Each structure stands twice: as C-alpha cells, then as structure tokens.
Amino acid sequence: MQGNLTALSITIFIILTVVLIGFLSGRDKKVRSSVEEWSVGGRRFGGLLVWFLVGADLYTAYTFLGLTSTAYTGGSLAFFAIPYSVLAFFISYFFLPKLWKVANHHKLTTLADYARERFDSKLLSILIAIVGVLMLIPYICLQLSGIQDTLRVAGTGFINVKFVVITSFLLVALYTFFSGIKGPTYTAIIKDVLVWAIMLFMVVTLPMIHFGGWTPMMDRIVKDAPQLLTIPTDGPKGIPWFITASFVSALALFMWAHAATGVFTAKSADSLRKNAIFLPLYNIVLILVIFLGFIAFLVLPKGTDPRFALLSLIQSSYGGVAQGLAYSTIALASLIPCSIMAIGASNLFANNIYRDWINPKVKPSRLTMITRGMVFVVIGLALLFGLVFPSALVSLQLLGVSGMVQIFPAIVISLFWMNQTREATIIGLLVGLAVTFTVYGTGNSYGIYEGFWGLAANFLAVVVLNPLFVKKAKSSTNPVKEFLFNKKSKEAPLARKGA
Amino acid sequence: MKKAILTILVLLPFVAQLALLPFVNKIGPIIFGLPFFHFWLFLWIVLTPLCTYGIYQLQKSKGGLE
C-alpha cells in the first residue's frame, strides 16, 4: 500500500493549522486560572458552542470508521447508532437542565462531584471516577487507532506513521494543557464544518462514481446484497440486540465524562433544552454515511480489512486533493474529541480520585495544575496501550457503554427520587458492573445487549435494597437535596414529567 | 388534555424507534431512495426534534420552565 503525497500534505497542513488554533484560543491566561475555567470554560458557552462541543463528542473518527466497518461486515446492525443518538438527546432534555442547575449552583465540574454531594459519599464519587477513567482511556485509544489507520493509508512510504501519531497526540495534549476546553471548542467548529461538507460530498459523489447515482446504487444493493438492508430477527445480534443496544447506549451517552464536560460548559439550562431539541438533526449526515459501508462491500475486493473499509474506499475512488480533505476530516474527528475526553478524564482523576481520596486538603491552585497535568498522563496512557498493547483493551472498548451506563441510577434517577439511598445506589452500581462483566465473560447474553442485563440488575438491586436504608436517608439532608427537592411546589410538575 | 398530549409526545419517540422496529424491518417500499427500514429511522431523526419542541412549548406555556 502506497500513500498519496498530495493527500498527505493536505492532511498534515490541516492538522497543524488546527493545533495552532488550539493554542491561540488559550491566549487569554484566564482560561487556565481555575479548574472551572479550564475544564468547563467558566460555564459561559452559549447554545451554539455547546452544540459544536457535544457534536464533537459524538462525531468521532471511530464513528465514521467503526460504523462503516460494521455496515461492511454486519449490514444494517450499524444503524443502531441512529435511534441511539436520537434518543440520547431526547432523553437528555428531561434531566440535563436539572443536572446543570445543581452543578452550576454548587460549582461542580464532574458527575462524580455531583454524586458525592448528592449522597454525601466519597466512596460513590471515587467509584464513579474510576469507572469513568477506566472506560474513557480505551475510548481515547480508539480515536488513536482511527488517526493511525488514516495516516497509514495516507502516508505509507513517506512518513513513519507511529512517529507522526505520537507527535500529533502530544501536540493535542499540549494545547489542551494550555487552552483547556477553549481549545477543542473552537477547533470543533472547524472540524464540524469539515465533517458536514466532506461527508455530504462523499455521500453524493461515491454512489455517482461507482454506480452512477444514489438510486442505481440502492437498486444494486437490493439485488445483490439484500441481506445488508434488514436486521436478522434472532441470533446473537438480531432485533432484540438492536433495540436494547440503542436504548442502553442512549441512556449512557451523557454518563461519559467528556459528554458531561460539554454539558457543564453551558451558560444556562435553557441552552441545553434547545440543544436537546436540535442535536438529533446531526444524524441526518450520519445515517447516509453508514451506507458508504455498503458501497465498500460492493466495490472493494473481497478480503479487504473491514477496519479500513471507508479509508480504502476513499483511496480507490478519489484523487489526491479529495483524499487529503477526507483524511484530514477523519484525523480531526480523532484528535479533537480526544482533547475533550482527556479533559473529562483528567477532571475526574484530579477532583475525585486525587482530591477526594488521596489529598483532600489540596490548594485550588495546585489542584488546577494537577488537573491540567493529568492530560499528559491520560493521553500518554492511551498512547501506551494503543501502540504497545493494542489487543489488551479490546474488552474494555466493547464494554465501555455497558460499563458507563451503570452510573445512570446514581446520576439521573437521583435527581428525581428524593429517598434514593447511598447504600442501595453503591450496591446497585457494583452489581450492575459485575453482571455486565459476567454476561460478557461467559458469552451468555441471549441475544440481548450486555449492558441491558447489567442495568436491569442494577435497577433491581437499588429498588429492592433501598427500603433497608431509607430511614437514615429520610432523616438526613444536605445542600444538594435541599436544592433539588425543597422548592417542590414550584418544580414538581416539570420534575415528574421527566421521571 | 395538555397532559395527555405531553405524555404522548414523551412516549412517541421511544415507541417509534424501539418498540415498532420489528414491524418496520423490511426493504420495501423504497421511499426517497431509502429502504423502508432506513426511511423510518430517517423520518424519526426529523420527527423527534418536533416532539421535543412540542414538549418544550407545552411546558413553557404552563410556566414550568424558569
């Protein structure tokens, strides 16, 4: 496989421009003056910036490469991503504004912070932080393999791919350290504009190049590969899997530390409501992009590595310039989410593992420095695992969503259920994780998504055990509980609708 | 009345995108160049925001949002 010099130069040029903008967005020293400034931009971002930030989280290199590769091998199962993300935003309408209000009022910057204050439990916040960091690092690795594959296709024969991957990630770590959340926000705008333009371009031109248009393409798929267009009714991954995977992933989306980071940057609860209304429209492009996996299935030689389905399709269909723009879009879709993920993971580590557990008396200025410094540790770990032991993380990657969703009762249910107890919530979380890992480990999922079994067990444990501890919870209160439940008369109608 | 509409708007996206999937899992008819299954998913990318918007307006008119 030989790269293309024009494509490679464009890719490198665009990456470097974006890195430069990442640095420039941190010119003002204020962006790194406190954890709140650095990680959630002082909560001053309006609707549009939040849209780009949350969109940047969702539309990663892995989304494009992973979903087209699933479509290439598994057909329409790949479309589970559509109901998943549409419903994720719909569900978020009912709890994010409330969560944001609590976080804003009590100056919280992570979900684990919220759980600690809501339940007066450092144990719970540490558990949530550990789950969050543990699941996020493999996710960063996925982004890393995305850019690595892209550079391999673009630059084989011209550059040392590993060296360039490491350099670009270190540059991203550096600008994240320097500019905080401002870095990925401004660069996310460039990334999203490129994503929309390039993906639309591919969706229009690739069917034309290979079939003479969208309709002839669809006719070909219906005739030659109809099995791609529907979902098996049973088997290990059939309709029940599709439904439960969509639903559980939708509940999990905003449990990810990087998604929560995006949410906490918002300047008002109303901007989150508006985002919840409009964000599903992001999927208009995504649903069409998944069809590119079908094109790959029809036109690429049999035996192409599914991981490279989209990249090989781009390589065999376009000239240097279009290739270059497509590669740089995918590269940016890998680097920018990575920056937000690193901020989310660093924030969890510094606030909820270091401060809550190791050194509670840390000074704010020192905590800010530790949070920022953690970016290098997180990205370093991701590089280490991604490049040195790529296979060690496969399970964690597959289990990421199923693991993350287990904090849903602690974060979301607790916003609406006043008498939810700390003890039941902690046991539920642990039971949920144990069941998820057991189902995955033994392979007995009965055609249902692993995380669904875990979450069901989690809910059951919370509901059954809660009455045992409820007496204590009823008699004690704290500022977060006061804030959530005490102005009941005013907020109750809305709260109940959401629950 | 408003409450009933609200409940319907809350449930509709879930019913359409999860519960009804076994019934829309088919290729024909092809609409706007998309097999029926994909057309259905596409349709709800557009209709879900309308449901959310309806809920938003209803809650706002009741003064439930500050």
Automatic annotation (TrEMBL), chain A:
Which keywords describe this protein according to UniProt? Answer: Membrane, Transmembrane, Transmembrane helix, Transport
Transport as a keyword?
Answer: yes
Where on the tree of life does the source sit, at the highest rank?
Answer: Bacteria
> What InterPro entries does the annotation carry?
Na/Glc_symporter_sf (IPR038377), Na/solute_symporter (IPR001734), Sodium:Solute_Symporter (IPR050277)
Show the stretches that span the lipid bilayer.
6-24, 45-65, 77-96, 123-147, 159-181, 193-214, 239-264, 276-300, 325-349, 370-389, 395-417, 424-440, 452-470
Keyword Iron-sulfur in record: no
Q: Name any one Pfam family assigned in the record.
A: SSF
Signal sequence span is: none
Q: Where in the cell is it found?
A: Membrane
Identify the main location. membrane
Membrane topology value: Multi-pass membrane protein
Question: What family is it from?
Answer: Belongs to the sodium:solute symporter (SSF) (TC 2.A.21) family.
Please state what the protein is called. Sodium:solute symporter
